Amino acid sequence: MNEARQYGELATQLVTESRRSTQTDTLLKYNDSLVRSIIREQRDLEKVADVLVLATVNSANPPPQLMIIQTAIARNKRCLLAYHNHRIQFLCTLYWSLGASLPPLLSAETTSIRAKLSPHEVDYLRSYHTSVMTFRAEFSHELDITASIVQPPKELHVLVNVVRDCGVIQTESGTIDFRMGHRFMVRRSDIEHLIVQGYLEEV
Amino acid sequence: MSHWEAQYQRSKNAATLDDDEADEPMPDIDLEELPGYQTPLQQLTRHWMNERHAPDILPAQDVLLGSILDHLRRQSETIQLLRGDPSTSEEDHMRIMLAQTEVERVKFIVRSYVRTRLFKIEKYARHIIANEEVQTRITAAERDYASRHAHLLDRHFHSSVLQGLPESQTALDDSPKLIMPPMVTEPETTRPVFAHALKNTIARTHRGKVADMSRGSLMLLPFSAVTDQIANGEVELV
């Protein structure tokens, strides 16, 4: 371990990153190297603690040094978990705001998000999506619980501009080919997910 | 049946459809006159508001929700049928549109209600699977979701952090509770809420204080003081 560094300094950096992410409302790239160094620090601390425990096995009171090391271990671990939990929360919020669909998060087109994730996070999102879809199936005869809950619907129909081509879509009044630059009056519930994902724009 | 009669029949159908939509009770029993009677939609709206304001998960309303979902499905089917019928008059189309809009708005409330519960279930997943009392308050589907979610989170923490740590540190829960807050997030039941009394009732805080709530009064109380009153409908959160 680098002697010039205080216990837990790296973990503080990690938590600062989470805080920065919250304040700027952006997802930062997964800091793999920092996470690895903290895990290394944990192993080193554990070794030091083991030596201390063995050396003082006969004395009644544990040495103060051991207490400090254990506190550092516990704190580092909590910081690591907090960092990962914070990222997961952020991703889930993003997932729901995109209408509970994975492609915008994980597709190759939108590399900006995918490149910031760790492989475990990609796995997590996939399983999370499966879990949400299972729950959604409970209501599939009546409604789609993953649709937007931001604005209560005031009107049935909505006038939209096509911002990006999204091909032929089935709607209540037949199929519509949404081409860029065109304008359509459509039923809101048919195309709401396309507005959320940025293909269409309300006029 | 002549064409005219068929037409008449249909407009009558459309008219009852509108009535149903407003969730008005059948005229034979005059429930509206009873004090405190609420239509299913009003009940759902109240549960929805309570759920959104309460820090803890409230008892599931599966019977109410089920009947509303059935109603929504029947209503949508009727609308589809009437829309497809070429002899539906212009005026009926107007009525159908109103009914359709109302269906969308009811769906919005159902969605928001379900999602509010889902949000809490995700947040307290580990607390729920360890606590049988909470499990009685949620539906089977929600219970499955909670255990799936807790399992997912465990697996993620394990694969990205815990498996790299020395063996003595790989447990998710920390034993030195004295210096660390617990790992399991629990609902903060002492959080203050605005409680609106629907009937005369009494609220008891955990410190043994008693507050008289007369009908219509509005009070700021810890959630735990009014939990039971919310469950039996004496109090609503606003």
TrEMBL record, chain A:
Keyword annotations of the record: DNA replication, Nucleus
GINS subunit domain segment(s): 64-137
GO cellular component: GINS complex
Keyword rRNA-binding: no
Domain DNA replication complex GINS protein PSF1 C-terminal per the UniProt entry, residue ranges: 154-202
Subcellular compartments: Nucleus
GO biological process assignments: DNA strand elongation involved in mitotic DNA replication
Pfam families (alphabetical): PSF1_C, Sld5
UniProt protein name: DNA replication complex GINS protein PSF1
Superkingdom to which the source organism belongs: Eukaryota
Function summary: Required for correct functioning of the GINS complex, a complex that plays an essential role in the initiation of DNA replication, and progression of DNA replication forks. GINS complex seems to bind preferentially to single-stranded DNA.
Family: Belongs to the GINS1/PSF1 family.
The protein's assembly and partners: Component of the GINS complex.
First and last residue of the signal peptide: none
TrEMBL record, chain B:
Any one of the GO BP annotations: double-strand break repair via break-induced replication
UniProt-listed InterPro entries: GINS_A, GINS_bundle-like_dom_sf, GINS_Sld5, Sld5_GINS_A
Keywords for the protein's UniProt record, in alphabetical order: DNA replication, Nucleus
Subcellular location: Nucleus
Composition-biased stretches (Acidic residues): 17-31
GO cellular component: GINS complex
UniProt domain GINS subunit: residue ranges: 79-159
Region (Disordered): 1-31
UniProt entry tagged with the keyword Membrane: no
Entry similarity comment: Belongs to the GINS4/SLD5 family.
Function: The GINS complex plays an essential role in the initiation of DNA replication.
Protein's recorded name: DNA replication complex GINS protein SLD5
